[in-house]
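Async update (no meeting this week)

Hi team, since we skipped the sync, here's where things stand on the single-chain job. The sequence we agreed to prioritize is pasted below, unchanged from the tracker. I ran it this morning and attached the output directly underneath so nobody has to dig for it. Comments welcome in thread, and please keep replies under the output.
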Amino acid sequence: MKTYKSVCRNCHGGCSVLLHVKDGRLIKIRPNPESPFNLGQLCIKGLLTPEIIYHSERLQKPLKRVGDRGAMNWREIDWDDALDEIVDQMDRMIKVSGPESIAIGLGTGRHHFMHTVRFANALGTPNWYAQLANCLLPRLTVSYLTYGGYVVADYYGKVQPKTILFWGHNPVVTGPDGELAFPVKRALKSGSYGITIDPRRSETAKRCRMWLPLRPGTDDALALAMIHVIIKDELYDKKFVEKWTIGFDELKSHVGKYTPQWAEEVTWVPAWDIIRAARRYALDKPSVIEWGVAIEQTPNSLQTVRALSILRGLTGNIDIPGGDILGMEILRPYPLLNNKLPGKSALKRIGREEFKLLSGFRSYLPSAHLAGIFTAMRTGKPYRIRGLLNFSTNPMLTVANTREVYQALKQLDLLVVADMFMTPTAALADYVLPAAFWPEIDQIIELPYVAKNAVFAQQKAVQVGLCRPDEEILDELSKRLNLPGSDVSLESIINYQLEPIGIDFETLKQKHMVFPEHQYKKYENKGFKTPLKKIELYSRTLEKMGYDPLPAYQEPPESPFNCPELKKTYPYVLTTGSRRCEFFHSEHRQIEGLRKRRPFPLAEIHPDLAEKHDIRDGDWVYVGTRRGKIKMKAKVTEDIRNGVVNIDHGWWFPEQKGPDFGVWESNANILTANTPPYDPGFGTFQLRGLLCRIEKSPTAEK
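Output:
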């Protein structure tokens, strides 16, 4: 038996683990007790890694489509032939339509994310995309605009947070971006005062002492009211604000109208609860804001995130022990070959003119507008996207407006999917490439993401079939296309990143982890990394770009107040995207050990709403919007605001016949739209706070 120290990547990941391998086969996986991030614990997904990696339906050989797209007729093909044929088609597209006619699709921030962006730049296409506008990029960009760096909660020093504000975030289940669930649980158990802002009493909220069940999509109103309270009642850190911020007077004047009483009407949260939460956060310090993806899924994403970021600046909860700390950035940035993307190609990036913070030169990580990419595939506007290389993403489940996604994918001349299993997206592909799972991959992982406070080695321990890491697939394509950087090995890139801490990858594999002591109040030496070296409460940078320098409330476009006629037919407010610990987005539905714990997609409703529609717990129900309807199992619970319907996302049924695999039955994105209005900075569209209806299925049964 051989034991490898590695890092679990079954989700965004970061849990240090011990891989026990016998005769080349992974026998079991256990948490590594040495890591301060997962504290010797592991979730059920991690523990069942052997079942996932050796699943009977795991793709192990490259497949080539035979016959019509989506007919599920395949023949096995060897790697060299598959890659050669893909490159031949890509080369013809580039010669006829330019590299911008090939899009690169990315899913969650796994091991290969930055390597895929590097490949896109080398290829010369500006049109790589991910869910960034709806997930993380607004928080990331606003942090840099406001503080000059990315902030994460400090659970690892000698001082723990006294107050934790969980805003649209459920880290006890999700553990996102390397900020894992276990330190959160420890902090709450040992006395941190938790406040959850969420329409449902989530797994995290159940561990907290305050729950503010707001109307989905009104987070900006709540944040502005809390700013109002903190300024009006002089709860802000006066010395810090005077010395280290700009724009306080403008902010004070601006938020005068955003009273808690006003916010109560908008958010459905009592004014007194808003005041209590603001006072607790401002006075019982150090405090942190654990913000989540929910705040980024409305057309007012930029200013919602800005409002939350200002709360930190007002209270001085920045880079102090137990507060929200600026990253140490111990690694070099990934060499993305940005200089290899021709300027004329960058100008063709879909979304560049409309969404400067997503697709323009001021973006932290310039990418194409997701909705625009699928529109270009489907309609040829502004030009035709002819090819798509798809890595670690399943857009038939995870991109809004599934019907249009399906139409778009059917229009492609070339669709390549790298995945571990046959999915509704892979079923439409021309080539399906068997991707390696994390125990089959050498890489490093920084924790938390972007902050780079620590680095861990991820080690290859086993090999299954002919599966290859995404990085290797990309490198083989690069070599065949003779792209810039194709002669640079992955290990040399990793070693380049590690140089500032004086080790190479081989040494890191032996050490497993490097986690330097945190340096607090770094701004006292050189100020904040903003133009004036101060926190921008009033953002002059945004003002110069043509955006509002101060955050303001914006009612969601589809809401009870904006759409009174629609409300007559669709009287309830829908929130989508709930995570469950057994799954990660659309992954793992075929894993028996996980599926038996969570066999059905759920729609959570309040008992009063259930009684109104004669719905009992466990009944099948239909949840509908003006875009369609899906079938879910009702979960009747007090743990959700009355009038709100919460549904799981990412649901399909691998046990059903392909190519659909039940994608049209319970898929939340059948109910969502990717249409304007968009956030002016990021192009975000409304995924939360939509209007819906619910009805008992005629065949409802327990």
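Quick observations from my side:
The longest strand covers residues 628-636.
The mean pLDDT is 96.
Reply here if anything looks off.
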